[in-house]
Fold this sequence. Notes:
By secondary structure, the protein is α+β, with helices and mostly antiparallel strands. The protein has 5 domains: 1-134, ATP-grasp fold, A domain (Dna Ligase, domain 1, 2-Layer Sandwich), CATH 3.30.1490.20; 136-242, 2-Layer Sandwich (D-amino Acid Aminotransferase, Chain A, domain 1); 260-439 and 573-664, no CATH class; 464-557, no CATH class; 687-797, Glucose Oxidase, domain 1. It is built from 25 helices and 23 strands.
Amino acid sequence: MRIVELHKAGDRACGGKARGLARLLQAGLAVPPGFVVLGGWERNRGGEILKMRRRLPAGPLAVRSSAGDEDGESSSAAGQFDTFLGIDGDEGLLRAVERCFASRGGERALAYRRRFGPGGREGSGDMAVIVQSQVQGRVSGVLFTVDPVTGRAEGGALVVEACAGAGEDLVAGRVPATRIELPREGSPAAAADGLLEEDTLLALREQALAAERALGHPLDLEWTVDDRGRIHWLQARPITTLVTATCDEFDYRPRSPEQLFTRANVGEMLPGAATPLTIDIFGGAIDFAMRRLYLSVGGLSAADREEPFICTFSNHLFFNLSLMYKIIGRVAGTSPESLEVSLLGRRLQDAPQVAGKSLPLRLFNLARYVLYVSGHGRATRRLERLRDNAFIAAASGPAERLAAIEDFLPRYRQATALHMQVSARSGALNSALRQVLARTGLDASAQLEALGRLLSGIEGVESAGIVEALERIAAEVRRAREEGRLGGDDLSGWLREQRGREPAADLFAEFLERHGHRCVREAELRTREWRDDPAELVHTIAGISRRGERPRPAAAGSWRDNVAELCARHPRLSRRLLLYLVERARRAVAGREYSKSLLMLMTSRLRAACRGLASGLVAEGLLPDADLLFFFTRDEIARLVAGRRTAPLLARARARRRLLGEQEQRVFPDFFRGPPPRQPARAERREQQTPAGRVLTGVPASPGVAAGPVRLVRSQADARRLRAGEIMCARFTDVGWTPYYGIAGGLITEIGSSLSHGAVVAREYGLPLVTGLEGATEILRDGDRVELDGGSGRVVVLDD
Length: 800
């Protein structure tokens, strides 16, 4: 047995309750004086307890438990051990300490430990006893720094429950409480039915928030106010039932109501609501890559270097557009128009004015920018070396697997930055082409139409090869059916069993070898890849095979004719300059799609490692199912692997998984200021009524005209209903939607630009595409007959 003063009770053996009180004392709050008895009851050492008692003020004492598994973050063990109040006299004190220690073996405490375990993975089975002076309270109660029901901290209120006299009856539930919600700022709305004055409520709030800051988590606090109006804190423990997961848990807090955000571009890389682990890893990698780009070209001031490029609202990723505008004033040759068109495909009506720095600085940074984008070849080669050499080491246990993933992440961030460098060249050349085309006097829509024609028919585009490969497989499937070698409906089984005997099966195996790491929403770590779940591919192949041969787009090289035609119609254009820029822009598009595939291969390795880690945690009994892993952050996974405070972690992850569907339904405008609206704003309808029907105007991305019924595609289940010749209308398209290009007659998307993935593949496949049509999936309905012109960006609704 040993005894320590209460303010020194930092040792884990002192138990959760004593440690909480010690930390309140360290934070400067008033706590009744006392000491802690550790190591169990020893009658022959009672004199030491009585000696410590002499140091306390005269008056009654409170004797309470402080066990190793009590008042922790995963469980509180509240009320499971005996408490003795109003203790007076030496013999009464020693008897109370002995009985308090003995309550560790009581039936109530044993039942609790059978339910929650002997330490909740955070404490031990040790028992300590606190001896304190007992305060005679005029008003007492509890205070929660976060509402334990809603879990809201930001913008929420503190919850105070109070009663007259001592608080034991309130805590035990024997008397009703007066409840008041105390705002985190400002004056309280009421004064607790006269029990507490406003000054006392404000003092309770100030001290409770100070305790929350000192202890680092939301608190359940017990307090009492004596006859002289002084506040005494009797207990501090985490709110163990709190599940803090909310739809806005990971939301960024805008610095001002004028801060600008956009889902464009990043909404194609990772569309929809992402899981917390994906936000942590992929969102963090994109932020790292953007920061490296801007720092490399002098696009950031020292004051902006801590500001994030990637911001999250309801688990959707957005670019911090206000930060991206900073490059315009620091690098010569950049402009608001080039930034807006490259991201959103159009100009913004109320773009902010950016003050330019000195001309020498901007010219110097322009030279840095040129050097940066000219390093695309080296960046690609470094990406290829990472592909060939950067693997996640095999490991046995969860701790080793997690360490291997963490070791891989710096190389993954490096790969993301290298892909960003390759992509930047494509964006720079596209911007230069736009500036040259602007000399023609064409309006913005006509410039985009011309740009689409100049960038059509590019050879060697990695993602376009997906459609071509599926076309070849479908042609062989159609031939096998016609020749009677394939019967029945089990195409998946036939492709699997006929490998080595049928051309279609061999081509399909080759396809999975090359492209099997791709999938819909391929940056989302939770998504299953084509190689693991090829059912949608097989369904698409069947659809293409039924459709028959599709006319091929114009042969590669026709872009030179388009250059000649443009220069003939607009003599101010320099044919030599235009040929130079177009040729390099076309190569840059192909290079960007290739580097994207390399990055997604690295993402595939991460995805596989995360699934392996999840399986290991399930086998160890630390995770109930493998899918839940994606709803933790990396720091939380480290705590899970270490077996620390797992109960609240698991509860929070389950709550996040339940909320993901709600987050997925949130609709955001392409561009907004400050926090996004709580209710989706009505889509901006750029439309007019004509004799032919309603005309909607988006961004021309792939030339050509198509007419047919609309098929709204918000999920793969919707895509399975797509029929040959229908106009596919979706919020976005990434590489995972590419197989459906072989079925659709045309495309309409809400997010995109002339350089987006959907536009690149559509042009190579000769598929008309209108993109940037905000709210298209709200405006149009399944079955609406439309005619779309991918050259002008117009969609005519032929009937309602």
